[in-house]
Amino acid sequence: MSGLLGLLLIPLAQAELFSADGYRLGQYRSPTPASAEPARTLDTAALQRLLAEQPRTALIDTYRRPWRNGQFIEDEVHANLPGSLWLANTGDGRLDERWQAYFSHHLREISHGDPGWPLVFYCRSDCWLSWNAVKRAHRLGYGNLYWYRDGIDAWEQAGLPLLPARPAALP
Length: 171
Description:
alpha/beta; 5 helices
């Protein structure tokens, strides 16, 4: 009976990978789709062109960082693309009010309140966190969205510089 029960639980576990409103809920470091609607997907060359053509473009890193006792815990060295805003933990499938407010606050600041401001979300390759963040930004009314799908890993593989990073402070 336990073998049959195990087989019955597999579809349930797969169904729980996404919330009812379409956010990825777990296994964040696994193969991602080719696009993150409604964003335009960028490779490294396309991102470089975008930054040259629209220098006001905001780069937003969504990589996770442990949060304990009211502070981020540096459990590993993290570097990201120069000029990035690191909004740690905002790509999770479910955000409580604190993290949703953190995300909203910093997007409002970096975009100067302009919902048409170009925003590029990224993480690492095969990372759903930035995919979730794109969807979340769209639901907040932002419309000029980009997804740098392979993120930090592709940037580094192209021989481009990364800078040591710290997450943005909670407001």
